[in-house]
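--- STAGE predict ---
source: upstream dedup step, 1 unique chain passed
mode: sequence only
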Amino acid sequence: MAGLLVICHSRTGGSRQMAEAAAQAARAEVETSLLRAEEAGPEELLNAQGYLFCAPENLAALSGAMKEFFDRCYYPVLGRLNGRPYAQMICAGSDGEGAARQLARIAQGWRLKPVQEALIVCTHAQSPEAILAEKTIPDEDLARCRELGAALGAGLAMGAI
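--- STAGE serialize ---
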């Protein structure tokens, strides 16, 4: 069984940068796979010990592609992931809370175990131009993503989570 599975959706690059930073740090601790939400499926979920989900918030909810991943995989793995650890990262233009709540409810349905509060990075993109523009996540926020990835990897490697 693989260690950490990082599943990401990104349209403007922010979530991708966050997921890559976390996955890179986790790889120093445990076998880690990074997949786009469009590529991930039930088999990958079943073959991992823990999960890090990373997505943008769009219109106060998870991005459509990340929600589609959960819709597509939900029933095939229902009752088969119970107790596995997960964390989440949200790239948001404002507060990110809506997407974080939605993802947490889905994970609760799978009976996943949250091991950290949602890490939300706010880009403050509020105009149509800023929302659609490619994002560059500041180094201090990427450092937080790396810390989360390293902690998840270490926890899985030690069997502590």
